[in-house]
Amino acid sequence: MRKLILAIGGSLVIAAPVATADVVGVGANVSYWDSDLSGKAGKNNDVVDVENDLDLESDTNANLSAYLEHPVPVLPNVRLNYTRIEQSGSGEVSTQFDLVSGDVDSDLDLSQFDVTLYYEVLDNWANLDLGVTARNLDGELIVREQATNGQVSKTEVDGVIPMGYLAARFDLPFTGVSVGGEANLISFDGDSVYDYNAYGQYELSLLQLRAGYRQISIDYEDSDDRLDIELGGPFVSAGLTF
User: Fold this and answer.
1) Which residues of 12-25 are buried (b: 16+ CB within 10 A; e: fewer)?
2) What is the pLDDT along the chain (242 residues), one digit of tens a residue?
3) Is 1 a member of any domain?
4) Which of 43, 151, 178, 215 places its Cα 20 to 30 Å from the Cα of 240?
């Protein structure tokens, strides 16, 4: 099982923070993401199209996040994020994929857990955060022949991936309205992961509401197993900030 290891310091330099929170701040939110899936999965030298051959459709896309910001300049702030994607479908594999062919049922289970350390570079009506993320990526694609006692193929990827982190937000003063975006990304030695979103936000007292668009692109190889997929679509979220 191959783990992707990268010295982020060679590609991302974080200067000493020039802005810090005045007080301790915490927040958390939950979001619903309506995503479409496209791309391919590979097993040894066999490849299957997850959209056209397997006809995978979204069942559950859940996202939870929480953060802690503090006024200590030297120490980074902390953000945690968990994304769970479950998709299933019934399709037809016209050519041999690993052990299976013909009519098949498929399930894709993909989870991501992020730990992000970041600094607030700007903290006024324009907000800018820079940092690094350690992402635990765990994915499994199971393809089963519909025939009685049919063959089963399992494609798995698992790794801890270091990524650069950037978040920007622009506030419209005295309205509670803002627009922004976030991105985690890495590209190294043929593997790449991109995860970004853009959103509009409205805050009312402690309540924070967001709506926007999120895109994830994963091109990751683990031994003889490979996922080269994209997920994208609108999301809505609700959270509390203190």
Assistant:
1) bebeebeebeeeee
2) 344 433 343 434 444 445 566 678 999 999 999 999 999 999 988 999 999 999 998 767 889 999 999 988 899 999 999 999 999 999 999 889 999 999 999 999 999 999 999 999 998 899 999 999 999 999 999 999 998 889 999 999 999 999 999 999 999 999 999 999 999 999 988 899 999 999 999 999 999 999 999 999 999 999 899 999 999 999 999 999 98
3) no
4) 215
**93 belongs to a structural domain:** yes
The answer to whether residue 2 is domain-embedded is no
CB neighbourhood size of 71 (10 A): 11
Domain tally, the chain: 1
Task: Kindly report the number of other CB atoms within 10 A of residue 26's CB atom.
Answer: 12
| Range of the structural domain that residue 124 is part of | 8-241
Look up residue 105 and give its two tokens. Answer: 């049922």
Helix then strand then coil, % of the chain, to nearest 5: 0, 75, 25
In a domain, 30, yes or no: yes
pTM of the predicted protein model: 0.88
State how far the Cα of 121 lies from the Cα of 13, in Å rounded to an integer: 13
Name 153's Cβ contacts closer than 8 Å, sequence gap at least 6: 43, 97, 98, 99, 100, 142, 143, 144
3-state SS class at 10: helix
CATH number for the domain including 237? 2.40.128.90
3-state secondary structure 183-206: EEEEEECCEEEEEEEEEEEEEECC
